Amino acid sequence: MARQPIPPFLVPRTAPDVTWTLTPAAPSVTVEEGRLVGWDHTCDLSVGVRAVLEPAELAAACGLGEGTVLGLALGWRASGSGLRAQEVVCELSPSGVTEGSMQLDGTDLGGVLRVSATVVVVRAVGGGPVSPSRAGAVLAQQSRTWMLEGVGDRFPVELVDFGVAGIRDHRAAWVLRVDRTDPTWDVTAAVRLQINRGHPVAAALAAGDAVPEVRSVLRTDVARQLVDLACGLRDFSVAWDVWPDGSLGQALSGLLAAVFPGMDIEEIRALREDAPEDYAAVLQGSTAFLETEGAG
After folding, report:
1. Which of 47, 82, 187, 207 has its CA 20 to 30 A from that of 115?
2. Which domain holds residue 137?
3. What single DSSP character describes residue 5?
């Protein structure tokens, strides 16, 4: 597992107080904790940030002098498209409250969206040998993630006759196959969803003709299997940055952060073992089980 790098200069001890807002361009799309319901690639997004921090205090904590200019850099990356961007840096306001925004094109997005607000040095004045002196030096960062698509939207899907393929029970509607060998492998190579050609409801699902309730059952079942998988992996971390981009570990991390926001893997495991009914309820609620609005 990757370790957090230690900067070779002084940084503030306290993290910035950051509040995020996410506004879809389409009124039919709703924002919930950790996910968007009803989003697709035709819907652009507006991301706003409000950061409460005192630039003079931050500069002093880093050993920098009066006249130092600090900025807030906004960035984003999307796991589904693999795209990322760093937005314009806005200077920290002397008032202690800095606001900024980003406009994101829906065609650039997909999967899990991660946005970040990074406090950087714009111009350093004074300072000692352990003070940050170069423009762009990172002093602190806060991030937030949202799941933009239904679970499994980016997995390879195969239409298979379970009776011919030798699946243990040919009456099953679908099977999720996951290669657990290495969570750093590409998720599209590690995960496959096989849908039973011989199951009438599942076949309609593969053809795009299934009712929304069936798609929601699939979404919840796939999410449950993937969460169970993550809980069974040794040394797993619900932390986006420790996994390679596009990897199974990163996909599982994004899923767990969306389904169980604010919980680490040990807390999720404890909920699963000690209160399985609550665990199941959270999974149903967070994956819109049997909901028709925004299913897809």
Report:
1. 187
2. 17-147
3. P
Count of the separate structural domains present in the chain: 2
Residues 241 and 114: their CA atoms lie apart, in Å, by 10
What's CA 17's distance to the chain center, in Å? Answer: 20
> Do residue 135 and residue 167 come from a single domain?
no
The answer to whether 101 touches 46, Cβ cutoff 8 Å, is yes
**Beta partners for residue 116, in sequence order:** 75, 143
Query: Quick one: DSSP state of residue 93?
Result: P
Q: Mean pLDDT in the chain?
A: 83
Q: Answer whether residue 295 shows pLDDT above 50.
A: no
Is 98 in the same domain as 132?
yes
Report the amino acid identity of residue 113: L
Q: Report if residue 43 sits inside a domain.
A: yes
* 104 touches 86 (CB < 8 A): no
**Alpha carbons 104 and 47: distance in angstroms, whole number:** 8
Q: How many CB atoms lie within 10 A of CB 283?
A: 19
Give the residue from 147, 169, 199 where a domain finishes: 147
Residue range 5-39, pLDDT digits in tens:
567 777 777 777 899 999 998 877 888 777 787 77
